[in-house]
Every structure is written in structure tokens, then in C-alpha cells.
Amino acid sequence: MSEYMTLTHTFGPLYDKDSRVLILGSFPSVKSREAGFFYGHPQNRFWKVIAALTQSPVPVTVEEKKTLLHSQHIALWDTIYQCDIIGSSDSSIRNVIPTDLAPVLETAEIRAIFCNGGTSASLFRRYQEPLLGRTAVRLPSTSPANAACSLQRLIELWQPVRESLSGSLPGLT
Fold first, then answer.
1. Other CB atoms closer than 10 Å to residue 165's CB: what's the count?
2. How many whole angstroms separate alpha carbon 138 and alpha carbon 141?
3. Which of 38, 130, 146, 151 stands the most exposed, by the fewest C-beta atoms within 10 Å?
4. Is 75 in contact with 19 (CB distance < 8 Å)?
5. Is residue 11 classed exposed, middle or buried when 0-12, 13-18 and 19+ CB atoms within 10 A define those classes?
6. How far is CA 119 from CA 52, 105, 115, 123, 127, in A?
7. What tens digit of pLDDT does each residue of 22-50 get?
8. Coil, strand, or helix at residue 52?
9. What end-to-end distance do the CA atoms of the chain give, in Å?
């Protein structure tokens, strides 16, 4: 895959009225698009990080992933609704149409917004922050492309998510 493709997000956000934290990726990878759900690449460490932060087993199936997120009051979505992209490469993204975050923010009492990686954070600041008047915390990417950051280091750097959830999760302090 070395050519640009114009792609539209093929699945919607995951959230409900009890969501308290919103985590935004950039745009689904090829593997995530194939799976029809977030963080579908087997080497992406997102699910291991979330499981560690919430003291939960690592989910395997899409249903287990949805159950974990809902039970922990975590919403997931991406900053990009449509873009031109080569494969899964965030660095190739151009011609961005941002997602509409209003439905999530109008339904749930989101206390904190986190961006999974620099591309998501940059696009959030450019497109969504001015419209929403809300800021987001940039976290290091859980992508396998961020191999320099170990799983343990990611868990440490993602502690602000745990702290934001601590008021809504039993047993977390």
C-alpha cells in the first residue's frame, strides 16, 4: 500500500451516558478497519494499557473490549472522520475532515479528554479545541510504531487516565 486512499471512518464512537473520560485516536489502522473496532492491530498496546490502568483482565474480543470500556466509563472515538491516508501511517494523513465530538460531549459528562499520540493531539488542537472550548491531554501513542516506549513506561505515562477515572471506579485511588 503505497498510494493515498480517501477513507471515511467506518464505525462510530463508543460511549454512553455514564462515560467520564474520552480517549481519542487519530484514524483507524488497516487492522482496525478490518476488525470494525478500535485498536485492532495485535501489536497495539492500547488494550494492555487500559487493562492495567483499570486493574482488569486484558480483553480479547470486541464484545469484551466494549464491556471493559463501558464498565470503566471510558468513551473512545477518533479525531478524524475522513482523510487521505497511505495504509495506517499517521504521518501520511492529509485532507482531514474532523469528527463531530458534540454527540459524545452532549450525552456524557466527560471530565477529561485524552489523545492517544501526537497526531490525534495536533488534530484535536487544530479542529476540535476551537469549536468545543475544551483542551485535551496528549499521551504517548500505544501504536507499535512507538516501539521506543515500553509497555511499562506507557502505563506510567497514561496514569492521568487512571486519575481521571478514580472518582468513578470502585477500588481505584
1. 19
2. 9
3. 130
4. yes
5. middle
6. 24, 21, 8, 6, 12
7. 999 999 988 898 999 999 988 899 999 99
8. helix
9. 45
Classify 139 as helix, strand or coil: strand
Contact 94, 84 (CB under 8 A): yes
Beta bridge partners of 80: 98
Whether the Cβ atoms of residue 112 and residue 134 lie closer than 8 Å to each other: no
C-alpha cell at 74: 471510558
Burial of 83 (0-12, 13-18, 19+ CB in 10 A): buried
What nine digits make up the cell of 134? 475544551
> What CATH number does domain 5-165 carry, 3.40.50.1820, 3.40.470.10, 3.40.190.10, 3.40.50.920?
3.40.470.10
Ordered strands of the 94-98 beta sheet: 5-8, 80-85, 94-98
Which element (helix H / strand E) includes 167? none
Query: How is the chain split into domains, by residue range?
Result: 5-165
Q: What is the pLDDT of residues 151-173, one digit of tens each?
A: 999 999 999 999 999 864 444 43
